[in-house]
């Protein structure tokens, strides 16, 4: 019997009934590869199983609304990769592994929209560099995930996970609560088991916050480790794509494929970059022994229940051999205004470049033309004010003194006078802090209700950060973040893996 799956306007013929498909909800890369080697199932079976879950959990039933597009060629691609395996060709650890990617990352076979009606139906001329790497590695691009519109850079207040084009993404732990953003769809889809791996992007918090709210692992790499070419931008000094997965090991596997030098992204090129093709080599369950970790206490004071959970996590770290040193501040200067100014300038500049790269497929000649269309469409401001889009339109010269001074201050006070200073003064291997609060109730009128976050120091510095589930409050996940200096991904992955193995804090959502 064949199951006919309806996805938007697509009809995909699946090879078996749902009862006969593999249970893929919590399967990791290693388990799937072992099943392939044993002949227990094929990549087509696994892909069909995820497509069935997408139809059941995302499009009907709970209606997570975490996906924007489903790849109509996914089953065909899976079958091709099965044939390669049968012929003895296995491309690597991602051969036949289904991956969902955020809908601000270019794919030549599906539209890339950033949740905006102005990009609806626009199919880029080519794949983003990281998508090319994924396809070459044998990954199956299963589809594109919904996101906060323009990666949450559009209004003075907004609802994370909402876009005018895609609607509101929901949290699989409680459908009335927010998935956080901007990589909301990637977070919800990973938690709900709609793919083996998902990918998000982050400027400040957009990987780690939805990972926190959806009870998964999220890693934002050092800016320059992973190419940004072919990704709708906010900030070329802060943006990076990164893994969003159910385990640290899967994040390490995925990072090894994503990381690569791209001549089209100058931040990925240089002798100072420390890059590895296999990050699983650094995973060590005993990695916490003898390590000194700085507990940043500032975020913990914003919520007493998160504070109590963080203290429990710190105790677990100490039991595993780490020494905890409390630190009150990381950046002594208030650089929030400078950081926003940098984003406004860089968003305008980056959008001009992105629209130009679309060639004759671009809906507008440049960013200012797009903003004029926004101003003239009452629907654009019917829910949220679009203040950031308008403010960015006035910032169009990244050679201006205002921009250069703001960028210099942000980098100085987040790097040498921020994270690097704290690490040196306290002789720390990394800094830890709660990633965020439990998910808040989604409010389409008043917008988000952030209580706490810890992503700004690393985001402004362009340094890496990883979040791992550390427990639950009333059934809602909360994560613990580890961050450090540039190119410290091996250390952070090792520490996060050791914490994950010691605590096993992740709980599957009860969908």
UniProtKB/TrEMBL annotation:
UniProt xrefs under Gene3D superfamilies: Amidase signature (AS) domain
Keywords: Hydrolase, Signal
InterPro entries reported in the protein's UniProt record: Amidase_dom (IPR023631), AS_sf (IPR036928)
Class of the enzyme per the UniProt entry, highest EC level: hydrolase
Source organism superkingdom: Bacteria
Pfam families in UniProt: Amidase
Entry EC no(s): 3.5.1.4
Keyword Acetylation: no
Segments forming domain Amidase: 45-493
Extent of the signal sequence: 1-18
GO MF entries: amidase activity
Name recorded for this polypeptide: Amidase
Organism in which the protein naturally occurs: Wenzhouxiangella sediminis
Taxonomic lineage: Bacteria, Pseudomonadati, Pseudomonadota, Gammaproteobacteria, Chromatiales
């Amino acid at each position: 019997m064949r199951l006919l799956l309806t996805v938007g306007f697509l009809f995909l013929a699946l090879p078996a009934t749902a009862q006969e498909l593999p249970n893929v909800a919590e399967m990791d890369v290693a388990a799937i590869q072992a099943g392939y080697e044993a002949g227990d199932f094929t990549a087509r079976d696994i892909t069909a199983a995820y497509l069935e879950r997408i139809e059941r959990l995302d499009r009907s039933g709970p209606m997570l609304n975490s996906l924007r597009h489903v790849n109509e060629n996914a089953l065909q691609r899976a079958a091709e990769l099965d044939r390669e395996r049968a012929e003895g060709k296995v491309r690597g650890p991602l051969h036949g592994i289904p991956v969902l990617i955020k809908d601000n990352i270019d794919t030549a076979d599906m539209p890339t929209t950033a949740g905006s009606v102005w990009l609806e139906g626009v199919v880029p001329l080519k794949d983003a560099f990281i998508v090319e790497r994924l396809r070459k590695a044998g990954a199956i691009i299963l589809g594109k995930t919904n996101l906060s519109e323009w990666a949450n850079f559009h209004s003075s207040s907004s609802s994370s996970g909402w876009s005018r084009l895609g609607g509101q993404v929901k949290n699989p732990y409680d459908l009335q609560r927010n998935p956080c953003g901007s990589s909301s769809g990637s977070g919800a889809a990973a938690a709900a088991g709609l793919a083996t791996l998902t990918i998000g992007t982050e400027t400040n918090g957009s990987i780690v916050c939805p990972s926190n709210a959806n009870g998964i692992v999220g890693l934002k790499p050092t800016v320059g480790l992973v190419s940004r070419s072919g990704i709708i931008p906010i900030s070329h000094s802060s943006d990076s794509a990164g893994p969003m997965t159910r385990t640290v090991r899967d994040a390490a596997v995925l990072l090894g494929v994503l990381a690569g030098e791209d001549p089209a992204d100058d931040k990925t090129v240089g002798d100072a970059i420390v890059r590895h093709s296999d990050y699983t080599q650094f995973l060590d369950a005993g990695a916490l022994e003898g390590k000194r970790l700085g507990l940043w206490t500032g975020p913990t004071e914003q919520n007493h229940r998160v504070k109590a959970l963080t203290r429990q996590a710190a105790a677990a770290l100490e039991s595993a051999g780490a020494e905890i040193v409390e630190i009150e501040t990381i950046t002594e200067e208030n650089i929030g205004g400078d950081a926003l100014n940098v984003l406004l300038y860089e968003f305008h500049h980056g959008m001009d470049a992105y629209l130009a790269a679309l060639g004759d497929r671009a809906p507008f000649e440049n960013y200012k033309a797009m903003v004029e269309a926004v101003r003239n469409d009452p629907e654009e401001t019917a829910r949220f004010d679009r203040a950031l889009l308008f403010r960015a339109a006035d910032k169009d010269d990244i050679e201006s003194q205002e921009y250069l001074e703001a960028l210099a201050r942000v980098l100085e006070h987040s790097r040498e006078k921020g994270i690097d200073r704290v690490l040196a003064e306290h002789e720390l291997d990394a800094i830890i802090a709660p990633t965020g609060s439990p998910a808040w109730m989604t409010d389409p009128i008043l917008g988000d209700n952030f209580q706490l976050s810890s992503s700004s120091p690393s985001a402004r510095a362009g340094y890496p950060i990883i979040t791992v589930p550390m427990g639950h409050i009333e059934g809602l996940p909360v994560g613990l973040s580890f961050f450090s200096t540039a190119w410290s991904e091996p250390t952070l992955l090792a520490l996060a893996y050791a914490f994950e193995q010691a605590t096993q804090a992740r709980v599957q959502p009860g969908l």
